């Protein structure tokens, strides 16, 4: 009996579909993140009913005080504008919520941002400023948006809707999932391996309720102090 060969294009499609489907399934190794686990460098995060966290301020920045494998998931409900909206350092007015990875400091980190307004899309960017570590040094310089090898549109966020956003890094390779569907895949480049740090979250002008979880704990490099670093220079 002869074995029929599967066309190469079909084989590649089936393999990619299998990988995406397996990756999109919920990760049972994720660990819950509480309010006390976070270092809030700008804005505020409060506790809400049903073990949720709440964001009601125009600008929120936070990171996990312990280092984990670079995976973070947010199950969130978008509740609209915070009111009294704040502009970005560039002067642009944007509403967005996103995840931070390898967040060494205010000047060196990776972002996976779900932009809500004025345009709905998922944007991955790297902020890198070698030798600089505080916002006073780098301000809003060093951002570069990364082009994916594979992507698809994210849902348009409507007030009252609930969604899931998850980002997973393996060295310089990043997968981002929206509602457990792969929406961004690609390399963030070798620059992202020149710094390292914990995972975290960021929002601009978005009112949210959310539950967070991260990858398994990992050892911190020698000489890196664990704990919360606050102050004007720590907010990116």
Provide an overview of this structure.
The protein is mostly beta strands. The protein has one domain: Exo-inulinase, domain 1 (Jelly Rolls, Sandwich). Helices cover 9% and strands 43% of the residues. The chain has 2 helices and 16 strands. The termini are far apart.
Explain the layout of strands and helices.
Layout: H1 8-24, E1 31-33, E2 38-42, E3 46-48, E4 52-55, E5 59-64, E6 71-81, E7 95-105, E8 108-117, E9 121-127, H2 135-138, E10 143-145, E11 150-151, E12 162-170, E13 173-178, E14 181-187, E15 200-204, E16 206-214
Molecular shape: globular
- The ordered H/E elements are HEEEEEEEEEHEEEEEEE
Q: Give the N-terminus to C-terminus distance in angstroms.
A: 64 Å
> How many structural domains?
1
Number of distinct helices: 2
Annotated CATH topology: Jelly Rolls
**Which architecture name does CATH use?**
Sandwich
Helix percentage: under 10%
Radius of gyration: 18 Å
Q: Roughly what fraction of the amino acids lie in strands?
A: 35-45%
Q: Give the integer mean of the pLDDT values.
A: 88
């Amino acid at each position: 009996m002869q074995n029929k060969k599967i066309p190469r294009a079909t084989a590649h499609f089936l393999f990619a579909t299998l990988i995406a489907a397996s990756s999109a399934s919920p990760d049972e190794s994720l660990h819950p993140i509480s309010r006390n686990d976070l270092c809030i460098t700008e804005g505020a995060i409060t506790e809400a009913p049903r073990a949720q966290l709440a964001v009601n301020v125009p600008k929120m920045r936070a990171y996990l005080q312990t280092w984990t494998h670079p995976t973070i998931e947010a199950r969130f409900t978008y509740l609209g504008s915070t009111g009294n909206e704040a502009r970005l350092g560039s002067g642009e007015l944007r509403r967005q919520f996103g995840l931070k990875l390898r967040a060494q400091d205010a000047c060196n980190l990776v972002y996976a941002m779900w932009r809500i307004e004025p345009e709905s899309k998922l944007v991955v960017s790297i902020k890198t400023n070698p030798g600089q570590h505080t916002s006073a040094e780098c301000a809003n310089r060093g951002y570069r948006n990364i082009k994916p090898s594979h992507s698809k549109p994210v849902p348009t966020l409507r007030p009252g809707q609930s969604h899931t956003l998850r980002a997973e890094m393996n060295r310089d390779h990043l997968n981002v999932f929206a509602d457990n569907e792969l929406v961004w895949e690609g390399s963030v480049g070798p620059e992202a391996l020149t710094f390292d740090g914990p995972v975290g979250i960021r929002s601009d002008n978005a009112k949210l309720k959310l539950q967070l979880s991260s990858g398994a704990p990992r050892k911190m490099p020698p000489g890196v102090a664990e704990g919360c670093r606050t102050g004007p220079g720590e907010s990116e």
